[in-house]
Each structure stands twice: as C-alpha cells, then as structure tokens.
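Exercise 7. Given the encoded structure of a 320-residue chain, write a plausible sequence.
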C-alpha cells in the first residue's frame, strides 16, 4: 500500500480520455477520480495535489490538505475567476504538444486568409472555376500577435518560417530574434502595422473585452488582404462580440477566425455560425493531451518531492 497521499482528479474533459490516461498515471500514489460517481461523497481531506479543469467549486472546500493545484490547461481563468481558492500555488499546463497544436492552428488560419480560403470554399460549393488574380505573398502581410508567452513566442517563430512579416505585443518588453516586439505602451504603433491580428492573451481583468471596435479600428485598413483579419484562440472573454460582429459587417474587419467565445459552447443562434467571413472552430485550437498533462504533473510533483521549486506557477496578482 502506497504511503503517499492521494492526487485528486477533477477534469471536465472527454471522460474516456481521462479514464484511459489514468490507467498508467501516478503509479506510486492513490488516485481519487471525481469523475467516478463512487467518489462523490469521499473524504478528500487527505489529498495532497489536485489536477483540475473547471472543477466542482466544492472541491477546494473539501480538499483541505492540498499542497498545489494543477490546471488541466494552459489557461487558469477557469479557476481564478470562478472560485474561492485556497492560498496555494497554481501550476499552468505547459507542454510541447499543446504549443505545437496552437501554432498549427495559428499558421493554418493565417494561410487560409492569405490564400483566399473562404472564397475558394464558397466557389467550390457552386462548382465555380475562377482563379483570384491578385495573390499577395506571405512576406507582404504583417501578422501581429498579441501575447508573447509560451504559445505566442512559438507561433511568431513558425509564422516567420512561413514567410510572414511578424510583429508581437506583450505586457513587458520581449526580445525574440527576427521579430519586432512592442510592450504595453506600444499598442497603437503595433496595431497600425498589423494586417492579421492574432489573439493569444490570457483572460485577466486587464484583457477582458480588449478586442473591441476601438482596437479593430486601429489595425492597418489598406493592407494587401483588402482589410484586417482577426484571429482569436486566447479567450472569448477578451472579445466584445457585439462590436466584433458590427466590425465584420461594416468592413472594419475583413474576416475572422474564432476558436473561443464569450459563452461556450457557442449558441446555435449566434450570428458567427453563418457569417460568410467568419471561420468558427469549437475551442479546439490546442486541446490538452491528458497523458501529457499527467506526465507534466508527475514531473512537477517529483520536483517538489526532491526539494525543487514548482515550475509554471501562476502569478495570482497578474492573473496568468
Ligand atoms: P503565457 O502566460 O505564457 O503568456 C501570456 C502572454 O500574454 C504573455 O506574453 C503576457 O505578457 C501577455 N499578457 C498578459 N496580460 C497582458 C496584458 N494585460 N497586456 C499585454 N500582454 C499581456 O500564456 P500561454 O501563451 O501559455 O497561453 C495564452 C492563453 O492561450 C492561455 O491563457 C489560454 O487562455 C489560451 N489557450 C487557448 C487554447 C485553445 O485551445 N484555444 C489552448 C491553450 C491556451 P508578458 O510576457 O509580459 O507576461
Ligand atoms: C487551455 C485551453 O487553456 O485549452 O489549455 O483553453
């Protein structure tokens, strides 16, 4: 019998992926899987670590002996904003596969807009054979990435490899080889250069509603794509959706690719589903691989047990 204290798992992910990944996870300690109804009323006072994604708020009242909380994703707004949290370290999920997937989504969407993907898909529906004559190259288009953290820093490098002119914006100044960067005070200059705006910001008090009409109006209006394009895979709470819809309708924005929304799942009556210049993906840009998540948690627990500090700890004051 293990002498180690349990890890409690409360992950609102596809159930099969959690059950399957748990078969080989945490071999040296007991696991309390809150997705198993048999654990509904179980005493959690003994649990030492929690791995959570949108957990039951009661979890933190019941699991009184926790040493750290691990987020099931890179974002932590799902716990910071919704719960009375104990004063414990909260650890983000940082993982190669998640980062790669996000960059794939960003590069995919940028190329889609560069290469007239929306128009060609429409033409195909009508069996129309018509080549669009004016085809800018990636190097003619400036992609501006808001958020240069783990995900943004990877995305800018991969966009650069594809040939785009890439610039980035973050709260604090950053140095990334080959990329011009702007800090918080340089927002206006950053936006005025941007043809495709990519949102990779966390949701915090400072970033809530940041993507609004005023911001979209500062993007470069006369770039090679015929108007600015907005991509958001950060958090939907950062976009003011009523203003975004207006801007997509009146031409302030030419098009958008949205993976995240103010309310998820996106309501069936949302105009985004049917707007001809909008691509919707269902918060699927970079889903957590549950096996990789558990490996990351195991590695962090091993650090704690060998006296090393946890990595990727959230700054509770900054909110990310
Ligand atoms: P990081 O914490 O590594 O990076 C966050 C970046 O945002 C940093 O560059 C930070 O600036 C910047 N930032 C934060 N607040 C501000 C602000 N007020 N003004 C300007 N810049 C700011 O996060 P990740 O890159 O790992 O993830 C980003 C977000 O992506 C997650 O929080 C999550 O919401 C979202 N996400 C979405 C997924 C999806 O499938 N759609 C999947 C995974 C994540 P600085 O560098 O100065 O600290
Ligand atoms: C995350 C997400 O934050 O999937 O990891 O949204």
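Solution.
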């Amino acid at each position: 019998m293990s002498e180690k204290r349990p890890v409690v798992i409360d992950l609102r992910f596809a159930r099969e992926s959690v059950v399957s990944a748990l078969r080989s996870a945490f071999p040296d300690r007991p696991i309390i899987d809150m997705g198993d109804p048999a654990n509904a009323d179980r005493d959690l006072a003994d649990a030492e670590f929690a791995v959570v994604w949108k957990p039951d708020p009661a979890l933190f009242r019941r699991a009184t002996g926790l040493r750290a909380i691990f987020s099931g994703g890179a974002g932590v707004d799902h716990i910071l904003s919704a719960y009375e949290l104990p004063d414990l370290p909260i650890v983000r999920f940082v993982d190669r596969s998640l980062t790669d997937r996000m960059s794939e989504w960003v590069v995919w969407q940028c190329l889609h807009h560069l290469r007239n993907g929306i128009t060609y898909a429409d033409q195909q529906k009508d069996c129309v054979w018509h080549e669009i004559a004016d085809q800018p190259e990636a190097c003619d288009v400036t992609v501006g990435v808001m958020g240069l953290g783990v995900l943004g820093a990877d995305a800018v490098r991969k966009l650069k490899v594809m040939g785009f002119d890439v610039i980035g914006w973050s709260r604090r100044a950053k140095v990334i080889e080959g990329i011009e960067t702007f800090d918080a005070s340089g927002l206006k200059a950053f936006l005025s250069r941007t043809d495709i705006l990519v949102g990779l910001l966390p949701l915090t008090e400072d970033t809530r509603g940041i993507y609004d009409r005023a911001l979209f109006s500062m993007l470069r209006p006369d770039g090679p794509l015929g108007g600015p394009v907005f991509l958001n895979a950060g958090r939907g709470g950062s976009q003011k959706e009523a203003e975004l819809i207006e801007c997509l309708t009146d031409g302030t924005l030419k098009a958008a690719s949205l993976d995240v929304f103010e309310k998820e799942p996106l309501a069936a009556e949302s105009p985004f589903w049917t707007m001809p210049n909008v691509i919707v993906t269902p918060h699927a840009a970079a889903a957590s691989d549950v096996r990789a998540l558990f490996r990351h948690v195991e590695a962090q627990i091993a650090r704690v047990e060998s006296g090393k500090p946890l990595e990727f700890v959230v700054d509770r004051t900054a909110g990310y």
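Remark. The pocket of NDP (ligand 1) is lined by residues 73-75, 98, 102, 147-152, 170-172, 184, 200-204, 206-207, 233-235, 259-260, 283, 285-286, 320 (CB under 6 Å). Students should compare their own answers with the one above.
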